[in-house]
Write a structure and sequence with these properties.
Blueprint: E1 5-6, E2 9-10, H1 11-18, E3 22-26, H2 27-40, E4 46-51, H3 58-66, E5 70-73, H4 76-84, E6 92-94, H5 101-109, E7 113-116, H6 119-129, E8 135-140, E9 162-163, H7 167-176, E10 181-185, H8 195-209, E11 217-219, H9 237-255, E12 260-263, H10 267-270, E13 274-285, E14 290-294, H11 303-307, E15 313-315, E16 324-330, E17 350-353, E18 360-363, E19 384-389, E20 392-397, H12 402-406
Parallel strand pairs: 3-19, 4-5, 4-12, 5-6, 6-7, 7-8, 8-9, 8-10, 10-11, 11-12, 14-16
Antiparallel strand pairs: 1-2, 3-13, 13-14, 13-18, 15-18, 16-17, 19-20
Helix pairs in contact: 2-9, 6-7, 8-9
Length: 414
Amino acid sequence: MHYYDIQGIQLTELADKFGTPLYVYDANKIIEKIGILRDSFKDVNIKIKYACKANTNLSILKLMRKHGVEIDVVSPEELRLALMAGYEGSQITFTPSGVSFDEIELAAEIGARINLDNLDVLEAFGQLYGNKKGALIRIKPHVFGGGNEKIMTAHPESKFGISIHQKEQILEIVKKYDMKIIGLHQHTGSDVKNADAFTQAASAILEMAKDFKDLEIIDLGGGFKVAYKDGDITTNMAELGAVLSSAFLNFCQEYGRPLQLWFEPGKFLVSESGTFLTTANTVKKDPIKTFVCVNSGLNHLGRPMMYGAYHDIFNASNQDASQQDDYRVVGYICETDTFSWSAEGQQSERRMNTVNKGDIIAMKNAGAYCFSMSSQYNSRIRPAEVLVINGEAKLIRVRESFEDILRNTVEVDV
């Protein structure tokens, strides 16, 4: 079932007003997702930390903060964005991977909570701070989970976290420097369909947690599966909430005091809020298939070509479903940049209401890892972004210009 408006504003009206290509975000959908997560874990002391790498627009960050969601960052620049959005250091978690220690120092000095993800930084943190600053340790629980190999982060060969099998080395360093470890963290991956992966990882972390005396937090990451099309399998949040809450409360009772349960959802909170609007430059009828060539490409929405990701695509200019055709939706980049990948991860066609040149072609689930992964490839400018909030469409990022491409260029005599 396709939608043709957001909060009563027609998609075609948004395209006319702001131009295309255009990212549009529905604030109501983000607020709804926050509520679903809270309701699923209503029996525990939950803290939601938005994994902002999914979408770092300042207005999105401010919306999260307004609704009581804290923030997880992975770079000094995301850290600065979080501060600009009004977050205090204590509301920010820094979860880097393989970064230089000066980045960790920077985050620690502004009061952010730090996730330490290898033995070297654990030792360096202990040497510098001892027990003066608390830290979390990111554990790799050796669990497979995620919708694509590139977004699985807890299996044995993943670069993320310290292996659970290195527990004795971790404890030795903690004891050596009298470190205050306030939390254990893990992140299974993204697009995890089966609750079993979460429960396996949680079980491993909770068992390990018994060896740490100063814990305040168990952080189980994110990765909840969202719907990309009608009837899609998603993470059963009510079931997951019941199972994990029970395990967590039992652990707290055994541990001897209540702890906070943290989650770091990114895609879950923002993916379904986003719609990417493009214009059909031409409808190219080939002897084998019909191509819809739009005024965008992998430079603006790279997930299909990078992950074989499925995005539902429809003709927002034509609501008449009586006449349809199969179209391969492609971009204007000078290499293959197909948008219409199948759910099985193959380039394919989509059944759409008849498309004509100039029609607005909409792509769903464009709120996460879409604009944030965009580039100026082929020297193309990045799109504008709009937030629909309280029934009003507000421009939250101006479309780039050619001057933006030249902004940091230094000309020299050659």
